[in-house]
Design brief:
The complex is a heterodimer of chains A (214) and B (257). The longest helix of chain A is centred in the C-terminal third of the chain and has 13 residues, at 196-208. Chain A has helices at 14-24, 36-40, 53-62, 66-72, 83-86, 196-208; strands at residues 2-7, 30-33, 42-47, 78-81, 89-92, 97-98, 103-109, 126-131, 149-154, 156-160, 166-171, 175-182, 185-188. Chain A has a single domain (2-208), classed as Class I glutamine amidotransferase (GATase) domain (Rossmann fold). In chain A, a hairpin with a 3-residue loop joins strand 11 and strand 12 (175-182). By secondary structure, chain A is α/β, with parallel strands linked by helices. Chain B is an alpha/beta fold and 257 residues long. Chain B has one domain: Alpha-Beta Barrel (TIM Barrel). Chain B is globular, with a radius of gyration of 17 Å. The two termini of chain B are 21 Å apart. Classes of the chains: A alpha/beta (214), B alpha/beta (257). The interface between A and B is large, with 43 and 36 residues.
């Protein structure tokens, strides 16, 4: 039995994610793996990723991971991070790529030329520490103060069709869904593995989550 | 709008050791990157940048070991610059736990390297470092230079920054060579021109001697982030003090409890 499987499909900062889990879950079997059979025997699955969504879907397909991902994403605690959140949606404007389709809605690009209320230019990517409003109570928010800052770096954001999926929002400059949850699925646009104490607490919560508790 | 402006301490390293005098009270080993990075993390640094000042192929392994050690203890973004010339350098640094890499002279020598790097790893981890030198006393046009200003390139900084963003740079680290090491403050016209001119975040660097300089870089220079070395290294100010000061002047920062 693998305690925590981190999905390796060639897209990203897997080492940072695994280092952070080692910190919050010492002694647990944490495995970076690109093998479908490992995902299927993991107690919980983390789906990270950075980069372009078209490339990411291509990698998942060529590595034969799509079916296993679909199966584990329905059956055990599952955490999507960054691109791992976007991939759970039906469709991304990035390269007009279909996603895994767990959540209805689409992934859109921030518009160039956005301004803050003071007239300053808002940069893309949205990069840095921004406040997260916990709009829905959830086990993964336990012990994290509402409006804590997390580290973001992304140019696309998800727009869920159903408002009840949204677990957290961040403003840039308008609020967008930076955390979504449904049953055993939780996914975040920010990087908990790079968000110091608040981020580590979220990962620690994930490690103890039964996939049911809200 | 609640995105915080970032404060980024920069550490000069060589052979996997921090080389600029670090003067934390009670520091056991002034050259230990892990211990120093942890101090900055506790103080509230938003990221940490490591600059490998004597990067040679012989000691690449040492910086990788260093990043691995830091990344297992410090859970904020880590950037590494210096000697990044090949796709494999980037891959190795990211695998060791770096989140972003800074590309400087290799971008000047081969601009298409930036594009190849962004295509392969994503723009979010590609920082293009631009060293800028004022062309004349009007401080209204700037030339890209490399090797600390020793090599002039003939490239206009504004055009170069724009080109690097089109090539896929996710962020610009802008250093004023005129101001670097002077403690006279950022080159504000330069910072503002580039920060307003490009669509990606700009980190201002070079010249910080006081907390007001940090404030000016953000408010007058429009920098998305400010980088400083000596004011933090020599214990003049903590990152926490810098943030408290900026917050008192109305700048949004991530304050650490």
């Amino acid at each position: 039995m693998i305690d925590i499987a981190i999905v390796d499909y060639g897209m990203g900062n897997l080492r940072s994610v695994s280092q952070a889990f080692k910190k919050v879950a010492p002694g647990r079997d944490i495995r970076i793996t690109g093998q479908a059979k490992d995902l299927l025997k993991a107690e919980r699955v983390v789906f990270p990723g950075v980069g372009a969504m078209g490339d990411a879907m291509g990698e998942l397909n060529s590595r034969g991971l799509v079916d296993a991902l679909k199966q584990v994403a329905r059956t055990r605690p599952f955490l999507g991070i960054c691109l791992g959140l976007q991939m759970l949606f039906e469709f991304s404007e990035e390269g007009n790529t279909p996603g895994l389709g767990f959540f209805s809605g689409r992934v859109r690009k921030f518009t160039d030329g956005m301004m803050d209320p003071d007239g300053g230019r808002l940069k893309i990517p949205h990069m840095g520490w921004n406040e997260v409003d916990q709009v829905k109570s959830h086990f993964l928010w336990q012990g994290i103060q509402d409006r804590s800052r997390f580290y973001f770096v992304h140019s696309y954001y998800a727009e869920p069709l159903k408002g009840e999926l949204i677990a957290g929002t961040t403003s840039y400059p308008r609020p967008f869904a930076c955390a979504v949850s449904d049953q055993n699925l939780f996914a975040v646009q920010f990087h908990p593995e790079k968000s110091q104490a608040a981020g580590l607490r979220l990962l620690q919560n994930f490690v103890t989550w039964d996939g049911v508790a809200k | 709008m609640s995105l915080a402006r970032r404060i980024i301490p920069c550490l000069d390293v060589t052979g996997g050791r921090v080389v600029k005098g670090v003067n934390f009270v009670g520091l056991k080993d002034a050259g230990d990157p892990v211990e120093i990075a942890r101090r900055y993390d506790i103080q509230g640094a938003d990221e940490i940048t490591f600059l490998d000042i004597t990067a040679t192929s012989d000691n690449r392994g040492l910086i990788l070991e260093m990043i691995e050690a830091v990344a297992s203890q410090v859970f904020i973004p880590l950037t590494v610059g210096g000697g990044v010339r090949h796709i494999e350098n980037i891959r190795d640094l990211l695998n060791a736990g770096a989140d972003k890499v800074g590309i400087n002279s290799a971008a000047v020598a081969h601009p298409e390297f930036v594009q190849a790097a962004a295509d392969r790893f994503g723009s979010q981890c590609i920082v293009v470092a631009i060293d800028a030198l004022a062309v004349d006393a009007t401080n209204s046009r700037w030339e890209v230079v490399t090797h600390g200003g020793r090599n002039r390139t003939g490239l206009d900084v504004m055009e170069w920054a724009d080109r690097m963003v089109r090539m896929g740079a996710g962020e610009i680290l802008l250093t004023s060579i005129d101001r670097d090491g002077t403690k006279a403050g950022f080159n504000l016209p330069l910072t503002r021109a580039v920060a307003d001119g490009v669509s990606v975040p700009v980190i201002a660097s070079g010249g910080v001697g006081t907390l007001d300089h940090l404030l000016d870089g953000i408010v007058k220079g429009h920098a998305d982030a400010v980088l400083a070395a000596s004011i933090f290294h020599y214990g003049e100010y903590t990152v926490g003090q810098a943030k408290s000061y900026l917050a008192s002047r109305g700048v949004i920062v991530r304050e650490v409890a």
